[in-house]
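Me: I keep going back and forth on a fold encoding question. No explanation is needed for now; the record alone will do.

Assistant:
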Amino acid sequence: MNLLIDTHALIWFITDNDKLPLKTKQIIENKENNCYVSIATYWEIGIKNSIGRLELNTDLETIFQIIEEPGFETLPITINQILKNTYLEFHHQDPFDRIIVAQSLTEKMTIITRDSQFVNYNVPIIWKK
């Protein structure tokens, strides 16, 4: 299965935070699944860190290296995904979440997220407790 990991789930995964349910963590760790991190997620982490909305225990470069360690693939943002984003209803105002939804739809990926707004876009999501 191709999985696109939402920002909060990714942060909880790399920090081994209990907010990420064990079953969801096991799905991410399952080598039969291909896990992707949107370049928008890196951008969001960088912005939130720079404005003080995300406290990291180390520098941003190290965090990005930690994200790459499990073998996650970086998903670039394409023109088709941007176009898809422009046609999405405004169920969600967060531009990072909207591009993740657009990426999921265009690339046919399942999103790992607990964000309840994503279901309004009719994208497949996984969040198992």
